[in-house]
Amino acid sequence: MPSYFAEAVRLPNGWALDVRLHVDADGIIAAVEPGASAAGAERLSGPVIPGMPNLHSHAFQRAMAGLAERGSHTGDTFWTWRQTMYRFLERLTPEDNRAIACQLYVEMLKGGYTTVGEFHYLHNDPQGHAYMDPASMASGILSAAQEAGIGLTLLPVLYMTGSFDGRPLVGGQRRFAHTPDSVLRLTEKLLGEAPPEVRVGLAPHSLRAVPLDAMREALAGLDALDRHAPIHIHVAEQPGEVADCLAASGKRSVELLLDSMDVTPRWTLIHATHMTEAETRRAAATGATVGLCPSTEANLGDGLFQFLTFLEAGGAFGIGTDSHVSLDAREELRWLDYGQRLRSGKRAMPVMGDAHVGARLWLAAVAGGARSLGHATGHITVGHRADLLVLDPDHPSLAGREGDQLLDALVFVNAGASPIRHVMARGRMVIADGRHPDEEAIAARYRAALSRLLAE
Fold first, then answer.
1. Catalytic choice (58, 120, 274, 322)
2. Which of 181, 228, 317, 328 is packed most tightly, with the most Cβ within 10 A?
């Protein structure tokens, strides 16, 4: 059983000094010994903190990040960005998808993420037909995560209609199409194929893409396969979506979801940007996690989540990179907090109490993200996975900082290169001195895929 020694480790109840960590063959922490000797242990050369779960990713969108940054006389919106995405999908193959995902996951690890929730809705060929192996695209995600070394929760997406009026899927949307029966068959296949450390759940895409009766059918089938499996859904991302839901049902998006479904702590509500105060408090009371993707939400002009109201109501949250315009966990938390400061005109909010703001954000996001993805991560403690970040104590942004001030500086100070020196995921050192052991080969495959996809 390997053991590691660090001079400072952020444990659930605070910082501890001279800590020895024992990790078993499955990458699980078997013992935590503060005040221990370093003799015989591998030294971790800096303060150690828990790695961040990334609870919302669409892997293929990494390859189109930056391709939709063009203005127009009529104005660019989420809906015009979506048309760029559909055009990008016209040529993407399972091999391309795997190459993109592998590059993405290496970049996530470097950004401080040790687990990813893949909201996987790219299922079919460009004509909308199922591949001979319906898991062709999903298997590439599994393989990419294994090669990169990142933890994975794979969430096959149910996507059926073009809007609340039930219109059929057209164009690029046809690559997303599933029925409750077909997505459950895919989920069952993935449960059988995935390594034991991978979680498999289900993601009804959104209320506009999945009729309520179909959602109930799919979730009942999921319970028959795994009644603890994670459930993720997009909701209330855009004002247009909320308005369309209100016109079609007489209820706003979050109101309709909470009235129609038994939303519990196994659920994650992605974005949930456009909620009333009452909806925000009601969502918090369910115990569901809200998945916030601040850099993507800013890039798409989605708006600002009612974060402070949600915290006041005891809500749990995590962060994701969604469309991957940023792959830095620190930046997501910085955007999240700065949006609220700009909205309120205040710095540290009363709801934060006297806690270190950066530390509170980091620790709450790792705990909420772990629960959302269904993995025993989020804390450095016995029985949890050894998902660890080793910080560089000599980095200028961390110089002279100790305890939770380290986490404050990690989140809020951006001074060039990342202060994350090493990354361990499931007991394996996947990033050492800022590098992945296979990053050159992985990047070469990614560049080759992109060259083909972007060729005229």
1. 322
2. 317
Question: Under CATH, domain 51-373 is a member of which superfamily?
Answer: Metal-dependent hydrolases (3.20.20.140)
Beta bridge partners of 271: 235
123 noted as active-site residue: no
Average pLDDT for 360-375: 97
Catalytic residue among 271, 356, 384, 436: 271
Q: Is the pLDDT of residue 350 over 70?
A: no
For helices 439-453 and 94-110, the axis angle rounded to 10 degrees is 130
Upper half-sphere CA count for residue 319 (Cβ side, 13 Å):
33
Q: Answer whether 373's CB lies under 8 Å from 117's CB.
A: yes
Show the 3-state SS of the chain: CCEEEEEEEEECCEEEEEEEEEECCCCEEEEEECCCCCCCCEECCCCEEECEEEEEECHHHHHHCCCCCCCCCCCCCHHHHHHHHHHHCCCCCHHHHHHHHHHHHHHHHHCCEEEEEEEECCCCCCCCCCCCCCCHHHHHHHHHHHHHCCEEEEEEEECCCCCCCCCCCCHHHHHHCCCHHHHHHHHHHHHHHCCCCCEECEEECCCCCCCHHHHHHHHHHHHHHCCCCCEEEEECCCHHHHHHHHHHHCCCHHHHHHHHCCCCCCEEEEECCCCCHHHHHHHHHCCCEEEECHHHHHHCCCCCCCHHHHHHCCCEEEECCECCCCCCHHHHHHHHHHHHHHHHCCCCCHHHCCCCHHHHHHHHHHHHHHHHHCCCCCCCCCCCECCEEEECCCCHHHCCCCCHHHHHHHHHCCCCCCCEEEEEECCEEEEECCECCCHHHHHHHHHHHHHHHCCC
Q: Whole-angstrom Cα distance, residue 406 to residue 427?
A: 23
| CA triple 17-21-27, angle to 5 deg | 145
User: Roughly how many angstroms between the first and final C-alpha of the chain, as a whole number?
Assistant: 53
**Which pair of tokens denotes residue 393?**
């104590």
271 catalytically annotated: yes
Helical spans, DSSP H, in 319-403:
329-344, 357-373
pTM (whole model) above 0.70? yes
The C-alpha atoms of residue 131 and residue 386 are separated, in whole angstroms, by 37
Q: What integer pLDDT is reported at residue 78 of this predicted model?
A: 65
CATH level 2 (architecture), domain 3-49+388-434: Roll (2.30)
Query: Span 96-107, mean pLDDT?
Result: 98
For the chain, give every residue range classified as CATH 2.30.40.10. Answer: 3-49+388-434
pLDDT attached to residue 76: 67
* pLDDT band (50, 70, 90) for residue 456: low
